[in-house]
Amino acid sequence: MNLEGKVALITGAGSGIGEGIARRFVEDGAKIVMVGRRKEKLEEVAATFPPGSAKVCQGDVSIPEDILRIVEETLEFGDGKIDVLVNNAGINVPGGVAEIALEDWKTIFDVNLNGPFLLMREVIPHMKAAGGGSIVNIASIGGLRCLSQRVGYCTTKAALIMMSKQAARDYGVDNIRVNAVCPGFVLTEMTEEHFGGLTEDAFIGAPMQRGAMPEEIAGICSYLASDDASYTTGSVITVDGGATVVDPFEIGIMGAARNK
Ligand code: NAD
């Protein structure tokens, strides 16, 4: 129970990786506030938790007024403190620079980057006053290297990684730790929508030759939120089954067969 006594705010907690993190945090003893746009989804998940361990807070991280209310409700639920913030809510939209609709470009910045920015901005003063805290930003390996026709996604995730490092730099002195987690391919609604119907062959060039389940991302988030990670800040941690260690030329030139 390494999160016993901690109050955590988790965005996008109604499905996928966020739901996995919510489940793990409750299991590990945290009290959590689950934020998302779909109330029913959040309530469905919260209903499976012990009474008093989770609060549902419907809200959109791209709306500044919602951010203020989310933080207020979390402080209320957490008896005046927020120990952990997990910025997990995110979207993906297709298109390269020449194809992405301008509206989509703005929306993805609002959700993937400005949402975490606004939440950190509101939460950090409370963490400072309480003597510290932990912020976990869910970025992506798309923030470390390019994905075909996903300029909005990769650009916002790269910026989220740098914002995490910058905040680690600025608030380490306040005992506020900020880390970025970069998942690889995780089986969720997002990947179903964008890459649905993948067969096993799609993973053949990846060292572990499979996608991850959401709960496989949750463990590292629980660790980063906990006091076990008391000296870990400014880190960018890949959880990608080794996908980023593969040289594309190895797959291209020698063929996937070499990986077997
Ligand atoms: P998902 O679509 O299952 O979950 C995202 C959640 O965020 C949903 O519950 C959605 O309703 C919520 N959300 C979206 N926009 C929101 C908004 N404006 N305000 C509040 N909530 C909002 O997808 P997922 O795969 O679980 O993604 C979670 C995070 O992990 C995202 O930031 C995503 O970029 C990142 N990620 C996912 C993968 C993957 O392979 N699935 C890989 C790397 C990173």
From TrEMBL:
Protein's UniProt keywords contain rRNA-binding: no
SUPFAM superfamilies the record matches: NAD(P)-binding Rossmann-fold domains (SSF51735)
InterPro entries in the record: NAD(P)-bd_dom_sf, Sc_DH/Rdtase_CS, SDR, SDR_fam
Keyword field: Lipid metabolism, Oxidoreductase, Steroid metabolism
Sample GO molecular function, one term: oxidoreductase activity
CDD domains according to UniProt: SDR_c
Gene Ontology terms: biological process: bile acid metabolic process
PROSITE patterns found in the cross-reference section: ADH_SHORT
Pfam families: adh_short_C2
Similarity section: Belongs to the short-chain dehydrogenases/reductases (SDR) family.
This protein's name: SDR family oxidoreductase
